[in-house]
Amino acid sequence: MTRRARLRNAALCLGLLGAPEVQGDPAPKSPQTPTTKQELRAAQSYRGCPEVCAQNEACVHHRCVDVCRPDCREGTYCTPSGTCEQLAYSQEPVVTEAEQQSKSGESSKDSRTLLFIDVGGALGYGIRTGLEFGQAHAALIRFQIMNTGVLSHAEYVENEHERFEWGFGFSAGYRKYMSTWGNLRGFYVGGGLDYSVSMIGSRGDADIYQVRHSAAPYGEFGYRWVFGSFALAFGPTLALRYPIFVGSFGSDEDLCEKQFDCRGASRRFEGTVNLEVGWFQ
Predict the structure, then answer these.
(1) What are the residue ranges of helices labelled H in the chain?
(2) Which domains does the chain have, with CATH numbers?
(3) Distance between CA 222 and CA 188 in Å, rounded?
(4) DSSP H or E run through 172
(5) Nearest in space to 184 (alpha carbons), one of 120, 111, 269, 77
(6) Are 62 and 50 in contact (CB under 8 A)?
(7) pLDDT class for 80, splitting at 50, 70, 90?
(8) Facing residues of 5 across strands?
(9) In terms of DSSP bridges, do strands 84-86 and 76-78 run parallel, antiparallel, or are they unpaired?
(10) Quick one: DSSP state of residue 102?
(11) pLDDT single digits (tens) 135-162
(12) Cis peptide before 28 (omega within 30 of 0)
């Protein structure tokens, strides 16, 4: 048997045994999307993330970060790339107004009684002394010496018939405090009723005097700072004063009928500023 015949017989035997016919290199498989957890970990490890990120996370700079949807959770912010990043906090803690006031007024935070002097009345209708009692809701009474106020005298400077002699007043009111770090401190709003009595004399040689009674509902707001047992409050007060009663006396009382200004005061609007200095009891 020749060499060619032996090769032909060998090829025929291999075909009968079922050996696959070699026709070149096999075609490469098409890439598929990873479906298993191991495949996801392998795919993300290739991009730089050592673990599988959650559905609402993205692999950025070798770590899993939240994707904005649309807002980020507290303490993070949304970057232009659509991911949530941690906010940078200062190493020094920020002290709030409540914390600062709570610390400075620690010794008097439970006190319910405050004595105070309203020195701001020197620019208004007189310095006032007062007593305040309460917690978040407080009642207060004040006594006023009108001779100590600039406006009490300035009101009659250009009056050719009358001059201010003396006066006093008292008021009762209510305040609501908004703070939670102690009693009678922080921002407040309130209101009440003021009653005053003043004596007005006549200019010139006439012996005429008037005692004028008036009442004024008022509203106020402001803020009180506390340092230990010391308190400082500041705020405006607005009032509308109504004349109540006028009594005249003097040897020339009959001349009042001839002088318009001697007939009594009219209703007037008042605006003053409170500057209270107080001490907790």
Answers:
(1) 3-17, 37-47, 97-104, 150-154
(2) 37-86 (no CATH), 101-280 (2.40.160.20)
(3) 6
(4) strand 162-177
(5) 111
(6) yes
(7) low
(8) none
(9) antiparallel
(10) H
(11) 999 999 999 999 999 999 888 776 777 8
(12) no
